[in-house]
Specification:
Elements (H helix, E strand, L loop, with lengths): L2 H25 L3 H24 L5 H31 L8 H15 L7 E2 L3 H11 L10 H19 L3 E2 L9 H25 L2 H5 L1 H21 L1
Amino acid sequence: MNWKRIIPDAITCCNLLCGSIAVYLATQGAFNWAFVFILGGAFFDFFDGMSARLLKAPSPIGVQLDSLADDITFGLAPAMMLFCYLLPVLGWWAGLALLMAAFSALRLAKFNVDERQHDSFIGLATPANAIFWGGLCCLPISVIAYDWMGWCLIGLSLLSCYLMNAEMPFFGFKNVKQQRIEVLSFLIGCVILIAFCVIKAIVNKHIEFALFSGTACILWYVTLNILFALVRKE
């Protein structure tokens, strides 16, 4: 038995467990905790690949297991959060939010067979999409007390389904030397956004605003990629 291969796979399973717990918490309306477990899954997702590289123990099973875990944590969990979040406002029409789980699976399958995505991404990565929706669903339900706002979020979820599978380049963090400007701009923006959200959370005594910083950072990430794509075309 190759113990080196067990360590990355065990970390991946921790990702899957975080996603499974997040799905359950979403059904209970505990959106804040569901998002915390999605972030926990993202933590394990980052270190499973790193541990496999450090231990020089990559495996085909590990690649497939990673995608299966990611679809639970970054596909089903945020989709279930949005569904349960919108259910009081839209009724069973909120089920349209579950399409996000299917399109996340499609995006992960494409990633596994796409040789272009070693250092950057083609389409929005599923962890980024999950963090966007996880933070948004932590906002008080009073924010979407109107039907039209709920439908706007459904429309936005369909847009995110498209972005995950679009032939649009998104910068990554594996090759920072070639994408210094993009990464530095993103990190500076994140520091400002997180500071603002945390201060607002402290002033208003609502942790939800601090968690919403995840949504703000991903929105900044998508905006940056669109801006740099326009600059490259010129």
